[in-house]
Design goal:
Layout (H helix, E strand, L loop, with lengths): L11 H5 L13 H16 L5 E4 L4 H13 L2 E5 L24 H12 L5 E4 L5 H10 L10 E4 L3 E6 L2 E7 H19 L2 H9 L23 H4 L6 E6 L6 H10 L3 E6 H6 L9 E4 L11 H10 L2 H12 L4 E5 L1 H7 L13 E3 L7 E9 L14 E8 L3 E3 L10 E6 L21 E5 L5 E4 L26 H11 L1
Helix pairs in contact: 3-6, 6-7, 11-13
């Protein structure tokens, strides 16, 4: 949208060269900017955009490199038309402008690569190239829209001009250079071993990326027959001061056929609510007690150090018609109640992440073959899930028995293998353990947030073709079936 001006003032390149420059990019045509926005919205609505990145700090070079880093692939770009004086001609195709030679040609190449004028790079399908250009022309943007290149299979960053290669580097090497500053900061701030492990992931050029594998159809509402009866068993959405996952938890339980009831710990203490009135409870996650000083453990002590509450929870767990699920802080809380949960003796304590930092990620897990009522029919499923915890490492050093604990879910790498490698395993749990259950399967705890990704649109990424319901919706429908 700079229409060939390529002003370099205050650009990242100018600053690297310890210069300021005279002319800085500006919005010369608000009409162009409005038209550009409208065109991109139309192309996106028509499903014609595969990728998009604005041109900003670092110019076209940084824009293309960041797209390649995110996609783990290389590209080949021709700078012929962009490195030409007054290149705003409505061609859309790169040309060979060999008549322009000398230092001016080199200067224009640098300007093309590093100017920070308004603009963007979009990736489109080859067979839709003409359609996309026609849309851009219809918004009077044809003269400033250019087809510059395509991905390559060499995993290399390549720039050509006048039919010659003027720059080429392996994508991995440039991505390592791009990430080096963050890596060095992380080594000082975090666990150095974890920082190194994440940095070394870049070296795995053959990483297949997230590859979900489902053992069932998430769109099948297996709870529908029970919902259609009109009966809605009551389930307590159990929360404590500071938690923040109660709304989505209540909604997913409602959608699964339960009557979700908001129950604060103060309600149980004051007698405004009784566990005897519920078929199950979900102990929700999210920063109870500000997530400091073992937040989930503090929550558990509210129960264990109150004779009335301890008896109420013990009685709830002893009933044979009840279930409970603890997520994140709720997982910590229930793991600290294992002395009153039948069959939970081997459960670990969940302690500070190996990275020594709060981890907010989107990670892959595999559902193990276990008796958990929540994971019935899901064994073998591999899918991404939301992660948000600072104390999620399954620690058997102080309590529990890793040889006897019944594992319901594990962290896996992008090749589907259980792992302790960071960041595939964001907390360093042994054998990738991130969920355990009891022999009868009625009581389960898990560290990742299934309740935050029960809809496909809640995922940071998902395979094409997934419908409205994400795989994790099945967990809560399973609970409804178990109640009957």
């Amino acid at each position: 949208l700079g229409r060939g001006k390529n002003r370099m003032g205050a650009s990242a390149l100018a600053q690297v060269m310890q210069q300021l420059g005279n002319d800085a990019p500006d919005v010369d045509s608000p009409e162009d900017l409005k038209a550009f926005f409208a065109a991109i919205q139309r192309l996106n609505g028509e499903g014609k955009l595969l990728a998009y990145h604005d041109r900003s700090d670092g110019g076209l070079f940084a824009t293309l490199c960041e797209m390649a880093f995110a996609g783990h692939c290389g590209f080949t770009v021709s700078l012929d038309i962009l490195a030409m004086e007054g290149h705003a001609s409505d061609s859309g195709e790169a040309k060979n402008w060999t008549t322009q030679v000398g230092e001016r040609r080199n200067e224009m190449t640098l300007r093309a690569l590093f100017n920070e004028e308004l603009g963007a790079v979009i990736q489109v399908r080859v067979d839709q190239k003409s359609d996309v250009m026609n849309v851009l022309r219809s918004f009077n943007l044809g003269a400033c829209s250019h087809i510059i290149g395509k991905p390559n299979e060499r995993d290399a960053i390549e720039f050509m001009r006048d039919a010659k290669m003027i720059f080429t580097q392996p994508r991995v090497e440039l991505q390592r250079l791009w990430s080096e500053t963050s890596w060095r900061i992380a080594r000082l701030r975090d666990n150095p071993a974890c920082a190194d492990a994440e940095y070394d992931r870049i070296l795995d050029a053959a990483d297949p990326g997230m590859t979900p594998r489902l053992a069932f159809d998430p769109q099948e509402d297996i709870a529908a027959p029970f919902i259609n009866t009109g009966a809605r068993p009551r389930v307590a959405i159990l929360r404590e001061q500071g938690v923040n996952s109660h709304i989505e938890t209540a909604w997913v339980m409602h959608k699964s056929g339960f009557e979700a009831v908001d129950v604060h710990m103060s309600d149980l203490i004051a007698g405004r609510a009784r566990l005897d009135d519920f078929k199950g409870f979900i102990a929700v996650g999210g920063f109870s007690y500000g997530d400091v000083l073992g937040a989930g453990e503090g929550w558990a002590k509210t129960i264990l150090f109150n004779a009335g509450l301890k008896e109420a929870f013990s009685g709830f767990f002893r009933r044979n018609d009840t279930f409970a699920l603890g997520i994140c802080n709720g997982c910590q809380m229930m793991s600290n109640l294992k002395s009153i949960i039948p069959g939970a003796e081997a459960w670990p304590k969940f302690t500070r992440n190996k990275s020594e930092q709060f981890e907010a990620r989107f990670a892959m897990v595999e559902v193990a073959d276990s008796p958990s009522i929540f994971f019935a029919g899901m064994a073998g499923t591999q899918a991404p899930i939301a992660v948000a915890h600072g104390e999620g490492r399954a620690d058997f050093a102080q309590t529990g028995d890793i040889g006897k604990a019944i594992v319901a879910m594990r962290w896996i790498d992008n090749r589907g293998q259980a792992t302790e490698t960071y960041p595939f395993n964001p907390n360093g749990s042994p054998n990738g353990i991130t969920s355990v259950t009891t022999p009868d399967g009625r009581f389960t705890v898990l560290m990742p947030h299934a309740e935050r990704v029960f809809r496909t649109v809640q995922h940071s990424w998902h395979p094409d073709g997934w419908g409205e319901d994400a795989p994790w919706m099945r967990m809560f429908r399973n609970a409804r079936i178990w109640v009957g």
